[in-house]
Structure formats: structure tokens, C-alpha cells
Design a protein that fits this description.
- The protein folds into two domains: 222 residues, Rossmann fold (3-Layer(aba) Sandwich), CATH 3.40.50.10540; 84 residues, formyl-coa transferase, domain 3, CATH 3.30.1540.10.
- It is 37% helix and 15% strand.
- It is built from 15 helices and eleven strands.
- Strand 7 and strand 8 form a beta hairpin.
- Helix 6 packs across helix 8 and helix 7 packs across helix 8.
- It is elongated, with a radius of gyration of 25 Å.
Length: 389
Amino acid sequence: MVGPNRREAPSPLEGIRVLDLGTMTPGKYCTLLLADLGAEVIRVERHSAVSDRIDDEDLMLNRNKRSIALNLKTPEAKQVFYKLAGSADVLLESNRPGVTKRIGVDYATIQEVNPDIIYCSLSGFGQDGPYARLPGFDLIFMAIGGLLGLTAEKGRAPRVPGIYVSDAGSGLLAAIGILAALVARQKTGRGQFIDVSMLDGVLSILSTVSGFLRPSGEPAQAEYLGGGVLPAYHVYETKDGRHVALGIFRPQSWQALCRALGREEYSDRQWATGKRRDETLSFLQEAFRTRTRDEWCRLLRELDIEIGPVNSLPEVYADPHLQHRGMILDVDHPAGGQMRQIGIPIKFSETPGRLRIPAPSIGQDTEAILEELGYDKKGIEALRSGKVI
């Protein structure tokens, strides 16, 4: 926990300016991570999108950021953008390859304005390759990258996950890449271009399940891949109609469960297949229906067995451990009202991240940012009259 005397300590990325060029969910998540750690993130959004309305997604993903709205189809808006880029450390964009060059904000152009810029392009398929210019969203990348296929039980179609995995994964990778480039710039004095692909991110995630091919051509850990149901690693319904997740990998935990359920003869069935697996699954399901979800969690946690409740989102926000960890924030937003949001996952002893400002509406900070760039009231009004802002 951070002591009271450290609450106003500088955040880790304080002094770093990031331009977020109207990115979608993966980019918003990337810059949320940077903003929560103290970076000054400015959302550069479309002039035509200006509105007092704010999307639910933006209430979360755009907190700690400011917003300027520019019509980048006009030369005047490009000049504003170049001034912003000249003072920035990082620029993030998530268009299909070729779009930024067409509108005059590509890496080569921005590098002329600011040679030290770290320019990150976060796209679906990356900047080159056969698929580079194809359209796609999260589900497409999970499908091509092999992750979706792993959700399919034998004989059944793959299941669409309840989370945008490639969005989150590529946003994390972009943030890591940007931080690494900032460290590299301290050593070399040079900025650079970063190419992050959502498809590449999906494939990288498969590393966590030893997703490589053996010399035979078969995947490593093939017996665990493909969404197969395993007795020790499964979700079970409980007496109250809710569910528990059993996530046992340690043999001693499986043996403790078998003893607790009076089935020590099942001790060798942790990863059973075929008829023995089906018999074990059937027994476990009937056993778990004899107590409520929370009763099973209390009982098996006392035996040091890996079990967890399948929580609804309201239950997640009420979880005492997550509250203790500072992962639940109470936020008062002028448009969204009182809400609970997800907190900052990385804990620093000396330079903690913190919530500074709620998410802006589109273009909310346009005038303030222009004034910081040296525009006076008359100049700002001229830009407004010319539909530049």
C-alpha cells in the first residue's frame, strides 16, 4: 500500500507526452496504461465526431487523457498536428497501412518534424505481408492466429470468447514496445518506428500454452490443446445454480480433492481421458451440486486446492481482495455520473500511477491545447470558423 506521504509523488511516466491518433479499442487500452502511469496522453480525434456524448467504453479507456478535435483534411489542422508532434515523445496510430501517408501524418513525415519521435503503428495484420491491407476485427485475428480453434471441444464449433483477446493483447504489446523504445532512446538518443500487429499478438499469447510444433509436426502439449474437457481443469455447476472453476495442476491438490470427496481411487485420474474421464467428470459434477458455490470455495480453499467462483461483473467489483489491491476505483464523471472502474494493475512503491482526470468528451480540451501551442483567442476563432477544429 502507498503511504499518505507518497500520494502526490510523480508518476513513472510523468513528463512523457503521447499523441493518440484517434485509435480504437486496442490503442485506447494501450494509451490508458500509459496515462494511468503518468504520461500526458492527448487524443487527436476527428473534427466531425465532436459531441458532448461519451461512449461507455471511453468512460473507462480514455480516463487520464485530454482530447483535441482536428479536421486533418485541412492544411491548417495538419500544422496544428505537426506542432503537437514536435513536442511529443510518442505517437500511436491504428489505421490500415497507407492511411497515415495519405493524410500526411505517417512516420517519415512526422520524423522530419520530430526526429526523436517514437511512432507506433498498431494494425490488424501489420505493416507488410499478404494480409496487410485486409480488414479485420478481434474475432478474425483470433481465428487466423489459432486461439479461436483452441476453444472448440471435440465435435463442436469454437466458442466466441466474452472478451476481445486480440484487442487487449495487442494493446499490451504496444505499451511494452513503447516503453522499451523510450528506454532505447535514452541509450541511443534516437526515436524509432514500432510495428505491432493484432494477429502477431494473438500468436504470441499462444506461447503460454507451449504453442510450438514438434519435429513430427504435432503441437507441443497436444493432449491439453483444443478445448478438451479435463476433470481437474473444468467449470462445475453448484447447488445454487452458480459455478466454480476448478484449476488444479498440482498432483497433491488433486489427491487432496479426491480424499475430500471420498474417492481416493480417482487419484490417478487428474488428466484422465476416454471412459475414465467421462466417469470422473460425471462424479465431480454431481458432487459439486451438493453444496453452494461459496461453500465449495471456502471448503476447498482451506485444503489449499485451486478453486474460484465464477463471478458476475458486479461480484468482481465487490470482491474484497480486488478492493484491497486498489483495483476498484470510484469515479465521479460529469457525464457518466458515479461509477466504479477498474484500477491500475501495476503497483509502484515510490512513483504510483493514479487517477487524475476523468475521460473527456471528444474535443473537450481543444482550446486549452491550442493555447498551450501558442494560439491566441483570435487565431482559435479563425480555426473554428474555417472548420479546422
